[in-house]
Specification:
Elements (H helix, E strand, L loop, with lengths): L7 E6 L1 E2 L2 E2 L63 E6 L5
Antiparallel strand pairs: 1-4, 2-3
């Protein structure tokens, strides 16, 4: 990968039937309650301030280059041989 990736929301996940696999694991499309998010006493979730090693929400990045190497596919210079990278285009965000 040589050219910078377009802006968007990127996430590395396992593929299943051509789509991100659903589930409550770090490499699946889903949130792990108590790990990725912590609901308040009213069961509401608030955007956390990013703190390394703490509960920071769903892992994603604004460019492919910003994803950690361990989450990139091997063919893109990463370390993971069972991951695909998915993107939501910047113009599709609400």
């Amino acid at each position: 990968m040589n050219a910078p990736s377009p802006q968007g929301i990127y996430r590395a996940m396992v593929e299943e039937d051509g789509m991100p696999k659903l589930g409550a694991a770090a490499t699946m499309l889903g949130i792990r309650t108590g790990k990725d998010i912590v609901p308040d006493s009213n069961a509401k979730v608030h955007q956390p301030a990013f703190r390394p090693g703490e509960k920071n929400g769903l892992s994603c990045a604004s460019t492919v280059e910003a994803l950690p190497q361990f989450s990139l596919p091997v063919e893109w210079g990463g370390l993971n041989n069972r991951i695909a990278v998915w993107r939501i285009r910047a113009d599709c965000r609400g």
